[in-house]
Amino acid sequence: MLTQLTVSNYAIAERVELQFNKGMTALTGETGAGKSIVLDALGLAMGGRADAGAVRHGAKRADITATFDVSDIPEAVEWLDQHELDDDNDCILRRVISKDGRSRAYINGQPCPLAHLKELGGLLMDIHSQHQHQSLLRKETHRKLLDEFAGIETLATDTRTAWKAWHQTRQRLTERQQNADEAEARLQLLRYQVEELDRLALEDGEQDALEQEQAQLSQADSVLHSSHQAALLCTEEETSASDLIRQALQQLEQLPVEVPALADTIQMLNEAQIQVSEAGDNLRRFVEDYEADPARLAEVEERLSAIYQMARKHRITPEELPELHERLSSELAELDGGEGSLEQLESELEKQRASFDELASQLTEARQRAAVELDQRIAEELAQLSMPSVQFVTHLNRNSDEQPAPHGMEDIEFLVSANPGQPARSLAKVASGGELSRISLAIQVVVAQTSTTPTLVFDEVDVGIGGGTAEVVGKLLRSLGSSGQVLCVTHLPQVAAQCHQHLFVSKFTEKDATFSKIEALDDKGRISEVARMLGGVDMTEQTIAHAREMFSKGQATHH
């Protein structure tokens, strides 16, 4: 729901701050006072097209900020969360337009592409005006409204998911079919490479173990010689480490008196003598048991040579060979009868098409049933809006090529016939601006209970109507407001008298500059404005009495 709109230096508005509530809000004022400022500003906040002419004369930039409460709009909350722009229950859309025509967009204070502003804005507000860009002229809007009315959004989402899976598989299959020769050559190469790696059968850590073993085997003579010399130095030479320690102990044991401070030292020498003796024994056993194995050395070097050669062949390090083996094996399995084979893809595509067809068939049936009811209910509303001769048709046009589409097997378009006997045609080609606004109103009244767009904006839906029909329009707008939020620009007192909130737009001149002013009216001000709309500038007592009666009646209307 729109809660606040701030407009700075836009058109003739220097500074406007508006608070909005739930229900129906009417904007009224003299022609040219600037009523369009609010709607145009909202359009820019929703990502509409901007130009330098939007900036107030003499200002450097125009700044528009629209604040929404999204606590009851799960689609918007999800969108903000996906784009990491969530900020509790508030959503602030901001648009800054420079006098050179450039503009910047922000969502919750973060710079964003204009496309994001449009995407999110479409979830928050729908503007129905007399311009060609309004959403009711788009087929995707027709489909969205029908699916919401039918309560089949989940089925539509499942159908779209099934289509996506089918489409992706078809793309993979097409690529495989187009590159069949290349794929076969690749398959043969993979088989050869994987067979080579299979024969090599390199295990994790094997290369390091072999290199360590090679180093030991290749230096066997040096290891044997050094170990023998170390054994001699430990225990077998006259000046061996063991003999020297023994002599040191003898010197300390022959001291004339006992020296407590040397007790630890004597203990350490005794332990050292034992350790050196054991080390010497270990070295002797090692030398006696050690055997150089030229045959094993040749075997190890041959194995390492095969590993190095395979790595050079694939231009990788030996350490990367196991990962390469696994990757090529997986690719071979996929191409050779696995998930990526032609046979497997064709089978998968057939199953996915069957799944899509089943969901799409259910979707078509649900849409057909809902379309009949929707047409009937909209016809009833159009009759109330003095358009009894207008025939409204929700047309389901089956895809001519019978190919799956993300939205099912048919296009959906709202058609109208303005006069009896004439064929129904698209809204854009048949309906005038005023008719289109009233048709929009009739549609929104019908789908109000199922529509996910919380804020609806109507620009002059009362064009070309009056009297009792105008009162009906007011009731319908008030009815929409009771279940959401409605903003409307109106010239009819019968409509304005029924709103929940009334904004009055005026302009004034000061120091050769024109300013627009927008203010919320209290009950007294609302009666005066309704009187002005009834009788013009010169208001009589009868006009005011009529306005008071109309206002009281409008406020007593409950839907």
TrEMBL record:
CDD domains associated with the record: ABC_RecN (cd03241)
Task: Name all RecF/RecN/SMC N-terminal domain ranges.
Answer: 2-507
GO MF annotation: an example? ATP binding
**UniProt cross-references to InterPro entries, sorted A to Z:** DNA_recomb/repair_RecN, P-loop_NTPase, RecF/RecN/SMC_N
Q: Name the GO cellular-component terms.
A: bacterial nucleoid
Sorted UniProt keywords: ATP-binding, Coiled coil, DNA damage, DNA repair, Nucleotide-binding
* GO process annotations (BP): DNA recombination; DNA repair; SOS response
Give the coiled coil ranges.
Answer: 173-200, 335-369
PANTHER family in the record? DNA REPAIR PROTEIN RECN
Instruction: Spell out the family assignment given in the record's similarity comment.
Output: Belongs to the RecN family.
What does the function comment of this entry state? May be involved in recombinational repair of damaged DNA.
UniProt name for this protein: DNA repair protein RecN
- Species source reads Marinobacter pelagius
